[in-house]
Structures are given as C-alpha cells and as structure tokens.
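Step 1: inspect the first sequence and its tokens.
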Amino acid sequence: MRQIKKLPTQGRSGRLAGYQHAMHDTGLMHLYIDLQSWDKIAFLRISKGNILLVYKINPMRYLAVIGLSSLLVACGGGGSGASGGSGSGPDPAPGFSVSIDRTQLRFSGDEGSVIPSQFIMGTGSGNNVPTTAYFGGEDMGTAIDHVEARISGTQAQFFVYPKMQLAAGEYTGTLKLSMCADRQCSEHFKGSPVNVAYTVSVGKGLKVTPGSVDLSSLTGASASVPVAVQLPGGVSSFSAATSAAWLQVANITSSGMTIIAGAKGPGLYNGLVTVSAGSRTVTVPVTYRVTADPSSVSSITPDRASLDFSAPTGYASSGQQLKVTLPNWAQGLSTSVQYRTGDAGWLVVTPGAGGAVSVVASAANLRPGAYRADLVLSGGTELAPVSVPVTLNVLAADWSVTGTSTLTVDAASTTSTMGGQISIDVPNLPVQGWQASSNATWLQLSRSSGSLRTDKLGVSVNVAQMLKLANFHTYTADITLSLASGKTAGTKFTVTLDKRLPELSYISPHTRLSGEAGNYIVRGRGFDAITNLNQVLQVKGATPAQIVRVNDTQFELSLPAAQGDATVALSNTLGASSGSVTLKTVSQPAFTYAAVAAQGNKGGLVFDPERQALFTVNKTLGSLMRFSKSGNNWNVSSAPVSSVDEVAISPDGKSLIVTVTSGQIKLFDPATLTEQGSFKAGGVYGETLNSLPRMAVRNDGKVLFSGASGVQDDGGYMPYFDLVSRSFGNIGGAYVFGWASVSGDGSHINIVQSASYTPLPPIVSLDGRDQVAKPAPSGLGHWFESAQSLRGERFAEGTYKVWDHDFNVIGKVAIPDSTYFGRTPVFSPDGKRLYVMAYDSNGLYVGSTSKPRVYVFDSSTRMVTSTDLPLLGYFELADYPTCAVSSYECDTRALGTISPDGKTLFFLGDARLIVAPIPAVLVGRQAAAMRRLVLPASR
C-alpha cells in the first residue's frame, strides 16, 4: 500500500471512523472500520474501484459489510469462487463463520428503464470472534453498476444495482465475496469465499431517435422533422404530447411520428415532446429558432391611429371600419375594449374577415360629455397588443326653443296682445314629433303636440286665471317639452308673466273740509302704461279740473269745492279691479280751550279729522292713547303696548302705526284701538323722553323708521315698512334715518341722519315722487324741533329759520322777548303762519305765574328787505303741556299739531294735552291788520 490516510473520528454518533488505504498499483481500496465506536452505517455506496472493509469487531457484534463494484483484485487473489469454500490457509478463527442468505441473483427490465435492485443478507456467527476482519470481493461480470450496504443490528443488507442504459439482451456474472483475517486475505474465515451468481435480462424498451430535435424557419413559416419510435415489448402503439401551442405532432404510426413547429415571430423557442407507451415515457427536447423575414409585417398594424365618434345622447353613432394588418405568424385577430371612465358598454366591436373591424359607439345610455376607451388588438401571445384610442363625444340633444318668454299684463294689454309663439327644434336630431304641457293655469297652449322645425307653439294668458293672481308680482310657468321617441331627455321652457295692472293705494291728504277745493295726490302703481289717463279715470262725487301724471306711481288731481266724498278708480279692458281711494269730506267743529292731564313721556301726536280724535303713545305707561271730544269734555282711552316708541297714521287713515323697540311695527284700528297686525323688523331704535319724530309715513304707504329692516343687500340703509305689501325694505342710497320732519300729506320728508358724529352728516330730503334720498343744501343746519305745512310748502328748521319746499330761505324766526325761548313750531295747513310755542326761562320754577306763549309769525312770503319773519303777535296758554322746572330731568319739548281748519293748536307733553283755539286778536297786533308783502308765497 502506498499510503494510509487518517480519517477524522466523530465519536459514537454513528459516523464512520478509521483508516482509508489506497493502492495505486491494483486500484484496490481498503477501508478500516472500528466497530466498537460505530453502531451502524446508513448507506455505503461504491461506484468504482476495489473496496476492502476492515473492521475491529466487538465480541458482541458480528457484522461486516462489503460494498463493491467492478472489483478487480480480491485480497490475496481469492479462491476459485466456489460457494461456501474455504481459503487456502488454516482457519484463523476456529468456531467462527460467516454466511449469506443467497448465492444467486436474477434481474429483469426493459431497455432504457431503471431495473430494480436486489439485496443479499449477510450474517456473522459462532465463538472465538476475531477482533479484526477484512472483507473483499470481486465482480466477475459487466452488468452491475453499484452496491449499497445497509447495516441493521447483527445483519447486513447488500443492495445490488444493475447498470442503466443496458442494451437489450441477457447479461450474466458472479459476485465473489471474501472475509479474511489479514490484509492480503490469505487467511479466510470459515464460509469464505462465497460466489453469488447473477443474471440481468434486458428486454426491448421505449426509444425515440433522435433524442433531441433542432428546428429553424423564417417568420410565418413552419418547420418539421420525422422521428423514429421503438416500442417496448408487448406494446403496439404510443401517444405524444407537446409542452407548447406552437409545437405539434402528426403522422403517428407504430414506428414513428412527425414533430411540427408552427409559425412564430423571431426568437428562440424551447419545447418538449413527451412520448408515452404503456407505462413508459420518453421526453424529447425541441429547440426552434425563428429568424425575421424582412419582407413581412412584424407587428399588428391598424390603418388608423385613433377613432373619434360623436352622437347625440340617446342615439348611436354611425359605424366606422378599421383595417388591421397582422404578421404572417399571428394566431388570428382578437379584440377587447378597456374603458377609461366608469361608464362602460358604449363601444361595440365586431371583427370581420381579412382584418376588417367594425366599430360602433352608442350614446343611448350616456349623458352629454366626452368618453374615452382603448380598442385593444391582439394577435396571440407572440405579438405585443396594440391599443387604438377611441373617443365618443356625446352631444346634448340641445333643444332650440325660442320665442315669447315674457308676457306683460298692464294697462295697455288687450286679449290679443297677451300672447306669442314659440319655435321648437332639436337641431342635431331628425324631424320627429314633440309633446308640450304647461304647469300653470294662467298659461294657455295652442296645441299639445307638433313636429320639430315645422310646428310652432302658441302661448297666451288665460285672463280669468290671471285675474286671480296677486298684482305686481312675477309668475313663471314651465312648458315641458318631450319627444315621442323618448330617446332624448325632455326640456323645459319658462314663460314669465309680469302682472302690472294699474292699482290705487292712497289719496293724500285723504280728507278735506266741506267746500274745500285743491290739489290731491293719488298714489298707486302701473300708471305709466295708461295711454290716456282721462279716459280710464273714474271719479265719483267730483269732476276733476285737471289730471297730471307725475310718474308710474303718482298722479295729481285738481278738484273743485264739493260737499261730499270723492271716490277715484281706474277702468281697463280686461275687467280687472284697480281698487279705489276715497277723499273724505269732513266738517271741523270748533274747540274750546282744554288742558287734559296725561302723565308720561310721549311719542308722536296725530290729529285724525275723520274721528276728531288725537293719538299718541305713552312711553312711561306703555300704551297707545286716544283723546276724543265728548261735549265739553275730552275722553281718554288706551291700549297696552309694551316698549312703545312712536305713533303715526296711515295715508288713508285706516291704521295707526306704532313702533316698538323690541323690534316690531304694529298696526291698530283708530276706532277701536284693537291690534290689526304685528310685523317683525330687524330692529327699532327709540328713547325714553318726549321723542324726536323717529317715524315718517310717505303718501305711498312706506313707513320710514329708525332701526333696521332685516332685509339685506337691496341697495340701501334707510329701512321702511310697506303698508301696501306688508313687507320690509330699504330706501336706496347710502344714508341713514335718524329722525325727520314730514309734511302733512306725506309728500316731503326732511331727515337728520345723526347727532353723534363730527362733522355732522348732511341733512337729506326724500320727496314722495323720488325713490332715493338726496342731500339738502349745505346751508341747512341741524335741528331737534321742526315742522312742515300740510303739503310741504314751508319747513321750520328748529324755531329759528323757515325754508320753502325747495330749500330757499323764507326768513328767520326772532322771538322779541329775550327771556322766552322757542320750544315747539307748528305751521298753519297752508304754511302761511308759523306758530312757535315758547317758554319763559325766568319762569321755570315751582310757583311761577309765568305762562307759555304762542308767537305767531307771517311765513307767507320770502323776506327781501329784512331777514326776520314778521311777528303778528302772540297769545298765552293757561297751562304747560310739559314739566316747567329748570332741571335736567325736565324735558320741555312738547309735541304739536293743528286742526285741518287751522283754528286750533294742540300741544302734548309729559304733563298734559293742551287744546288751544287760536284767538282772532293777538297780543300786540290785530289779526286783521297783518302785513302782506309784495312777493307771493313761494313753494
């Protein structure tokens, strides 16, 4: 032996330990095994060369394992191979022997198949067990591939494996096994050597020739090759399967077949053909190399890069054709659609012959808008798919409905003028029938159906139904249009009715004295549409001398003297009622002086000619008060109104208007003091003293008040409550309402915005015929007391200056007695006299005998030679209407008014109501001797 190599020892874990010997001259390999440190070997595989296993044997174990293959030389040359023979030398261990369970092996199998292994069982027995044993063996044949040994306890199994791929035939040989006491195997144990004869019978098997296939072609072409198939014995046919769609077999016979590779794109492809016969299978690898043909198409090629459709909603588009060219190896054209939005199903694709594709887009279930999808063209797994973008523009089936959309009913309207025609079309649809209906009874349709672009729809006002609607409102009617096909959504066409028939609201002033003639303002609306006011104006009880239209809401009547009432109305051709207003004729009885006790701060003083009563509100007591004459006495009645601030009367005298600082405007019946209604404002301002006039009633029924309307963004800051519509609003302009002076007929209002700013904001005026307030001349100052005449001819700025209607100065007010100061100004109804109640500043103390005076000034003409108005004299009052002491708590401002005949003054304060007839003879000058100036009275 040339060398001995020490193998690593791994203790008693069942691992192999010992020495390995190599012999270069004979190829014999010896393996030394220490059996005392080894329980078992799971497998010992010898694939070639000679193996000698040497064991140091534990006396309690009798196990030796030999694994061999192509054993060339036995230990010491071995014996002749007779089974159960002995070695040529003496017995090295008398009483000990080895044996195997068989001396013959027979194997059988088919060519190309795995022949199952067989095993030999070896056993050691007897006494005088040797401590060292050498095993050897020799394969005397050519058919054994290898042996695997498995040791279990005192036995060993030798698994013998025939060679694979043996050609058909029968192979015989002998395995010669030896067990020796020395390395040269010159001393055999009893039972050694032993010969094991074997036979390997190999039948004819399944075989494919060639065992692998290489094919090649140009794109679009196929390739094929025949193969021979040898069937195993007892089998008469076979089957074949391929691993890829491009790989097929054909022409199958009992001895062969044809392998076919189909048309493919450029590339290298690998596949398998599995041949099965009985229980045997053979796999044939196939390599397929495809090269490009420069003259052929290499990808999917549509003739258009994109498709665009348009269709009205409810309809399908006209179809489009797409021509698709495929490579010659394509498996066939297939299509699919990928929608880019949530709406799907609107594209219909139908492939045809020769690569033709029909594409139709439908808007039957789509709303107007743009819809997008991708038409995906596929030609099999070997081709990259191609996407063709598709766009569908869904058009709204836009109705084109034109014609009469507004109907106006006013004073000029007749039955023939309250109508029109409507043209109906849907331009992008074919001519078809339409249907129409109205949702309003006031709108009549000439027909309920017709044809697009052909038949017009007539509309007109149903007069009877229209007259039931409130005047000066706008109404809408929807005409619903639909198509009989139902494919297009219907539409609505709105017709607006603007009802502006003339109506009357008030005549101002609403009373006159018996035998009185004059000009009267009639308020309402819708007057501008009246062609001839004289023809439609109806006046009962008087014949107008003149009729002058001022604007759409006002005209003036000049009436002669009369003894009875005059009622004004308007006629029209539609039979609509304009309402009526009545100018009442009243008789004014004479009053005697009276002082009526009435404690509490007051707000507003109204004289009602119809009822010969005075009205005020008592802030201290929280009540609405009425003073009415009964014989020689005055009766006082009241109605509770919490947080009350001021009272005024409506232009027709039918309602008392009361402001309440908790945020309401309330209406009361002047005859009964019962409440007629309460209306919530945005806010109402007030004060606790005898108030400045924080409410002004225009003759059109708009009640201006200090506060907030609660109506936003309508272009103004002066709040009002409209008695006609019973609603709130704001006068246009950027001014505010603090307190005001208003003419007796409500035609002219002068307004102080505030006294809380420096510099003071300008005074503004609001004429009854104007819609917005305007700043007054800069010469007009600031006042706390003021007065106007019945028709606004004269305006008293405090108790120190008089202006005309157009803010021309008439003259100054100069009280000749230096200790007296003006408190309350009152004009005669015609504005020719100014009465100024004044207090003696030296007499404001308890026990004083000084009396209030009423100074009378001539305000009929403008001063030209002097600035002071002529003083006509004065007269004294027997009582103070207010407290009469000089202290902070005493408010000496009294409220004042005058009777319609100009003969009696009324002053009201926190102490009493003073009824003061104006004497014919004044102190200092006789009334008949009044000086007249040359210039006439100015407006």
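Step 2: inspect the second sequence and its tokens, then contrast the two.
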Amino acid sequence: MNKVESTIQKMKLNPDYEKYFFQNASKYQNLYVWLEPLYKESYFEAQEDMRIYLSFLETVSLQNKEEERSDTTKILLDIVNAFFEFRQEHKSYDYYTDYSMVKILFNLPKENITLEHIDMIHMLLKDSGGSSLLNSEIEKVVLPVLVDNGMNEYILSLLRVIFDYQVQDKGKSYQEREPLLEKYWLNSLLEKHSKSIVEMIDIAGLEILISTVKQVIDEDEAAFNNVWIASIEEHPQNSFPERYDNQLISFTRDLLEYLDADKVKSFIENFLDEEHPIFKRLAFHTINNKYDELKKLFWNWFDAYKDTINTTFKHELYKLLQDNNGKFSEDEFDKLIAWIESLDYSKYYDDVSAEQLRIVTAYKKKEWLWSIKTSSTKAQELYEKYNAVNSSKLEHPGFDMWTSGTEWVGYQSPIEEKDVFCNKTVDEIIQEIKTFDPSKIEKERFTRDSDLIEGLANDLADCVKENPNKYSLEIEKFIELDWIYKYHLIYGLTNAWKEKKKFEWGKVFDFILNILDEDFFASQEQYILWMKGQIASLVEYGTKNDENAFDKKYLPEAKKILFLLLKHKEEEQIEYDNDMHTYVLNSINGKALHALINYTLRYGRLNSSHSVKWEDDVKDFFTKQLDENTEYSKSIFTILGDYLPNLSFLDKEWVDSNFNRIFPTGNDDLWEIAISGYFLYSSTVYTDIYEQFKQHGHIEKALNFKFKSDRTKRKVIQHICIMYNSSKDDETILDVIESKDQESILELIRFMWQIDRKNITEEARTKIFSLWQKIYDVFREDNSSGAQAIFSTLSKWFVFIDAIDEEILPYLKLTAKYTEKNHNSYFIVEELERLVQNSPKNVGTLYIEMLTNDIFPTYKQEQIENTIESMYKLGEKNSAKMICNLYRKRGIYFLNEISKQYEI
C-alpha cells in the first residue's frame, strides 16, 4: 500500500485526521496525485455540506490551470457537474459552496465550460436571491475568462443573467426593479467590463437588451421615465445612475453607439415606431451619434410625425438638433422653423390671459430656436423677435425639469406630508379638498393655481391606490367634488387593481352609474372627457385577467356602463390614421372598445363550453358596425383587426362568415386599417386565419398595396416567411421574389436570416438555398441599384453555408461583387473565416471577387488574417498571394507579414 492509499485509509478511520488533511492540503504541491484516489473512494460526492473539500478542490484546480492534466480536468468537471445537478434537484443553498464551485469550473480549460453552466450560475443567483459571494465572481472570474477567450455566445448568455431583475416595493406608487446581481456588483461589473462586453455581443446582444426593455415596459408602463432618466447621454441630471433601469438603458446606449450605423439602422427605424418614449429617446440619441449615416431616418420621421412631438422625448430631440444643426440644409431649417412657428401652447395654459399666453409662448418658441439659431439666419431673427416679447434667460434649454440638489423644478404638490393626508378619514380628506385655496400657497416659477389643484388631485390618486377599499366603501361621498378629483379617484382605483389590491366593485359601479347621466355626456369639460376613458380602463383591467378579475356577478353592471359609453361616443376627426393602433389605445372611444372586448372575452372564458361564447347584444353591436363607414368605423375596424383571433375564440362561425366584411376589399381605407391591426399586433401566425387571407385574395392585395406604414407590409412578409418555413405555403414567398419589389425581398432576406440563423438544420438550409436560387435566377441579369442591394443583403445568408461547392458559387460571387452596396462585407468576412477549412479554393475566389470589384474589407482584420493564413496552409498559395498583392496595391498592408512568412 502506497502513501496515498494508507493516508486515505487512516482518514476514513479517523474523522479528525481527515479534517486536518483537507484543511492543510492546499499548502502542498502536486495535489493531482491525491484527487483520483480520493474521488474513487467517494469523496467529493455532491451533498448539502461540502465545505470541508472546497479549499482542496480549489487548489487542485489552480495547480491544474498552471499545468493541465486531462484526467484531473475530467474529475474536477465531474465533481462540479454533479454538484450543479444536486443543487438543481434539491434546491439547497450554500453561498460559499456556490462561490467556490464556480471558481473551480472557471479554472478549467475553456473547452469544458458549456452554456448549461451559465444557466446553472443563473439558477444559483436566483436561489440566493441575488445575495451571494457569487456576485463578485461574475465580475472577477466568470467574465474575464469569457472575454479573454472570445467566448461571444457565452457572453450573450451571461448578458441575460447580468440584466435579470426582480420587482420590489410594489406597494409604492411606482414599481422598482432590483438587479439579480447585487447593485454594487452590477455597477462594478459594468464599470470595468462594459466596453469589453459591448465589443463582443454585436446585434444579438442588442436583441436581448431590447427584449428586456420591452419586458419591463409590459410589467410597468411608467418605467424609464424622464424623472429617473433625465437624459440618455451621460449627464449630471441623471441623479440615479446606479438604478437598474438606468443601467439597462445606459448599456443599451453604449452598444448602439459602438455598433456600425448599418447594423443598427433597422432597429432605430423600429424604435421610432414604438409607442413607449424610451425607444424614441434611444433612437434620437443614436441618430445624433451617427447623424451622417442615419439622418434620413430622422427626417422621414419628422415629416410624418412632427405633430406628435411631446415632452416625453424632448431632450434627446433637442440635443439632436443642437448638435447637428451645422449639417442641416435650408429646406430642413425651413421645416423646423415652420414646425416651431406652428406650436400652440393654449391647450396647456387655458387658464391664463391672452397676454400671459403670448409671453409663455415666446419663451417656449425661443427655447427651440436656440437649438438651431447658430446655423440659421432665419432662426436667429425669429429668436430675436420672441426675445423682445419675453427676454427671460433660458434656463436649462432642452430640459422641462431640472434638479438642483434635492429640489425639483416643475409641478409642486401642495401637501407637505402625504402620509398624514392619506391617513385622514374620507370625510376629512373631502373637507380638506373643498377648502383648499391654491392662491395662498407659495409657488415655484411658472407654477399656476391649476398646477397645484392638479397636484392635490394626484395626491388623492396616490392615497386611493395605497388603500382602495377605504375609498370604495365611502365612494358616494365624492359625488360632490369637482370632476378633477372624481377622475383621479377612478384613476387611483384603476392603478390599485392593476397591483391586485381589492376593493368593493359593487359600490364603485353604483357610483359610476350614478354620474353617467345626460348632463355628463353633454359636457365637454376636460376631466369629464378623461373620466370616460378612465372608467373604460377600470372595466378593462377588471376583466382582462381571470386571476385578477372582479366577481362575475358584477358583469351586467360593467356591460351597462360600457354600452352607455358606446352609445354616447365622442365625435372625432382622426388625424393619425397611419397609426390607428396607438390612436385607439389612447382615444376615449378606443378605450371603451378595448374594454368591451376584454369584458366579452371574460364572459366567453366563463362560458367556454359553449360554441358561441359572447352575448347577442355584443355580437349585434359589432355586426351592425360592419356596414358603417364613418370616422368611428376606423376605430371599430382597428379593434376587429387587433382582436381577430380572440373573436374567433368567441364565435368562429361569425368571423368566418363575415371575414370579407371585417377586411372589406372594396373600401381601401377600412381594409388597410383592419389588415394593419391584425398583422402589426399579432405575435402568433394562425394557420387558419392566414389561409383565409390567402384564399380571399388579401395576401395578394397586401403585397401590391401602398400602406401608410411600411411596417404593415414587412409584417405580411414575415407571416409569409413563417408559413414557408413550416411548409404550409411554399408558393406565396416565390410570388414575393417574382414581384421584384426591393423592400419586400430585403425584408424576406433579413427575416429568414433572423428566424433560422440560430437553428441551422438541413431542412432550413434546403429552404434557404431554394430561395437563394430563385432570387439569383430572377435578378442575375439585373444591374439596377435595387438588385445590387438585394445581392448585398444576401451576405447574411452566408451563415447557412457549410461548404462552398460549384453549384452555389455563382450565387455567392454576385453577392460578393455587390456586398458593399449595403455595407454587408463584414458578414462575408466572418463566415469566410469559418468556411476556409472546407473550401479554401472557393473562399479565395470570393475574396478576389470582392477585391477586383473595388471592395477592400478591413473589418475585422484578425478574421481576414486568419482566413488568408489558412489559405496558405491549405495549399491555396496563388490565390492567397494574389489577395495580399491586391491589398498592397491598394495601399493596405496589414497582410504583409503573413505573405512574407509564407512566400520565402
């Protein structure tokens, strides 16, 4: 028996000796000789308490890192994996063991680390509630290994861990997200490694970040607001940079700044169409950062949406104008000046005299003119004109709010201690509201009496949100208050219900039915108009989720309220019919229609065993609307398109028999609205609905139709691609190609790349190459700019190639020839580095095709060097030499050392 075996036997007989051994083993060299014998004797088996072994195992892993032995690596990996499996099964938690096992894993050669290990780290952090020694190891151990070894896919997986979060403090008037990593370590990690991560994650990382931002918004519409995130750029006004929301947006901003303009262009275009202002703010910041390349996106947006500009994205728009005005044309200055001159502030200052309004308007307009006047004589002259009316110094132009220390400039609440106010009885609160005199309150600059009244009403809403049942039980007492307070009362109840706080719905419905009289519907008072929409929203949130719905016994009252709102619908002149979805979400009539649908779906789920799941009066309401053609019809057909799959659930026979009335091909305006409603906001492709669209000619019409929003056509193309991918429609996609419509084909190429590139099966390759051949056949004799753009964008499809044979080489040569038409050569460079091992000759052919057509890629230089060096090693010396010479002839010399090395 050798020394190792005798020592192990002694340890098994004497626990104190065993403890002494493991406590002191880390002091010795060559511990690998002990690892396998101990492992075979069942030491290191995964269990609740493994601390006694951790120092030994860590030291073995460090010694193995210095001089790697494959058998040692294998045993250590087995131990770590067994521990992870144990943790997953038993959900036990020991912060020190977690921390140590991850360190051991990341001391192993990189080939032993898998994406599943990143998932396990995610699990460990979640189980610890984010409070763990492991927080530090993400920064100190995990990230450096992944970054130093260029493990991009792993970085992407870890990105989801880094920006995971938990919602806390839901009892407050806003939701607060806490990062899964402790806030200190998240800040530290991003401060030290943000640049390295940004350089590795590319577009795939941007997609992850955008998905996370959208998830946050789905949970909390108030997230990423101007109060917490004063500016997208680094700025002293960002008082809370360590907050999760701020970190997420700042990192997304850094990535957008780093990526090439061509890579982010489609994202920025989509951002400009998003409803939540944070996307427009990111878009304007990025356009500002890459103005020369992205300016067309801005001016297209400005031409279409200048009338929608508001304070939620003012700062980034202002800064874009201020930073780039030296690049504007006279025509662009004229557009901006015409817009500034059209600004009407009367609706925001309806309680001031005409003279006061003139003075305020002058101040506001000269603020916008300040952003462009240095490069425009017209703007300078107008600035002087308005400065003569109001000579006040511009304070912090581009910001509507400014913090100085802890004081906010902006709205001023008249309540010093809101908790004291909220804790009063309902009678006391009502009395305080009745006796409130804003004229006796000291005001901030530009604060009006009406602002203080609004502040008090907001305070009431916050109180109601915190304790809704208190107010619902005595809600009838609020009947005597002004409409501003009744509106905020219902607003507070709505927010409370969204946070799953209970109250007495019967009394609330009685209160609402009591106020919905003829005088109410005849009034045009602002808060009465808003009240209609808020009542509808309350019903909607009370029915849209079965887990948080009011008792079904109140459904008749809810329907009565909704039909009263629908009977007394608002007269409307819809201006934004190219974005009807957003309009209907925010309009009074639209809110009532959304509420009716959600009420009906709640009723349908309660009667799910019936073939027809909605009530006759609701069915009759929508059936009657199918034959109308009014302004109101625009809202109706938007709703019908938006909720088509839900309507099929309620009454499939009604949808099938009325399909061509819901999508009336004889009325282009309503057809476009309904089609856009369906395609833009349907996240699922429903085969039966798609087949009806195709059968009745709607797909064909959509492919040839000039939609107000290009996004609709893109979504139609995406549905066609998905149906092609699932082998349910192999024909229509060929019609798209044969149409020669450039934008449609570009969308087809981009979308097929997006959905298949992460799961490249043989079936996917076959389908892609079939389309590639079709595109090649249709456009190979076409030298137009549009055809060149299509071949350029096909660079993305190089990812689907596993070897370059003679059959596909002609397709690839055309793409290589035109790849820089849309600046896509970096796709080819990246993939040729991969393909050179299997196809060195044809890789050389494609490089020469680019170079002889005056395309000299230099990004990424390392990948090009690797490719050319591989060509030399694989016997393609002549092609490699020709490539080096062509670069040299162009005055680009980074391949010189490689050519010298192999041409001696």
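Step 3: confirm your contrast with the notes below.
Residues 183-219 form the longest helix (37 residues). Residues 404-411 have pLDDT under 50 and may be disordered.
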